[in-house]
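Replying to the earlier thread about multi-chain prediction with a worked example.

Input:
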Amino acid sequence: MAARPTDTKESILRLGMEFIQTYGYHSFSYADIAKELKIKNAAVHYHFPGKEDLLAEIVEQYIQRYHELARSLEKPGISSRQKIQAFINRYTALCEHGKICLIGSVGSDYNTLPEKAKVKLTELVKLVLGLVEKVLREGKKKGELTFSETARVKSILIMTNLAAGVQLARITGQQDYTAICNSLMKQLTG
Amino acid sequence: MAARPTDTKESILRLGMEFIQTYGYHSFSYADIAKELKIKNAAVHYHFPGKEDLLAEIVEQYIQRYHELARSLEKPGISSRQKIQAFINRYTALCEHGKICLIGSVGSDYNTLPEKAKVKLTELVKLVLGLVEKVLREGKKKGELTFSETARVKSILIMTNLAAGVQLARITGQQDYTAICNSLMKQLTG
DNA sequence: CAAATAACTTACTACTTAGTAAGTTTTCAG
DNA sequence: CTGAAAACTTACTAAGTAGTAAGTTATTTG
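Result:
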């Protein structure tokens, strides 16, 4: 049913994600993607008819990656501390490349997003918050993590620290982000 | 030296600020401002030749407002708790109008900003962090505020909670932002 | 081998963007 | 009353935007 299978669609998704995390959704064009991949503008439209379709699939891909992270952390023998660290590591990787998290980037454009993307973004945020909340709740129960707030509120606090932290790092330098990470782990594990 | 003094320039600044906090810097145009103020496109260019000039002045205005806040909090008889609350109240006011803070909005566009705006933004961030840090340091010394981190790190944690918190509120609802505020005040004042 | 289909390219449109140059109106200073 | 200047409007440009319609090429399947 196919003719000449390529990896163009995946490359567009990968590049779109990179552009959003580096410049923002409204600061890259189909022409930017086409130029980088050495294809024509219309080829991008072939895979993603509208820019909102591309955005929705990028957010969906991010959702799937978090589902994968969640599954990989369900294996036995991983401490709550390690689970939180795995979550933080994702942000640290972004930070080291001068990128910001998808939620922070697309979130600041929230009022200009097509409805489809708004729905996907909400799904993503709830997924991430739920994931962190679960780790916190279990970690507290096991006595591996300490915090005075509810798991729900603490998950919000951690996530906002990290999301805004990677943005702050681009403005005032990476040491501010590092300080956040150190403080978070110290708070949670003593 | 003038002919027909108007308040057009101030209106443009006010509207530009509103647009940035509601839609983002790259999601409004001079035409949007002109339409709203019932003037022509070129009239906006008369007051702000380039969009980057407008942005720089908007950030500068924000800086001045924080200087004013700082001065108003220097009066005697204001507790550290009240000073922190005054800072939080600014974010709460934004949140109630579906807006996000200028730093969060412009910060997520950082890599696409003209150099002039980058410099101003950095100045603003350092000002705000310094302001909060000072209140925290004095509050701790007086025994009015409690936190285990350094004043510097705690100021970063609070600011990232609030900046990302107002963005989160647009996605998952205002109760998440309220939870952040309650938790912050509880942590600091017991 | 033929037709169908995937994966494009070519060539275009309609629209929006920031920005400019030149002219107009209003008001005030001398 | 006469410049001069502020505060515009009119009219325009060049570049970039998303998006589309139609044609091309390569490959696989019946």
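Chain A has nine helices and no strands.

Feel free to reuse this layout for your own posts.
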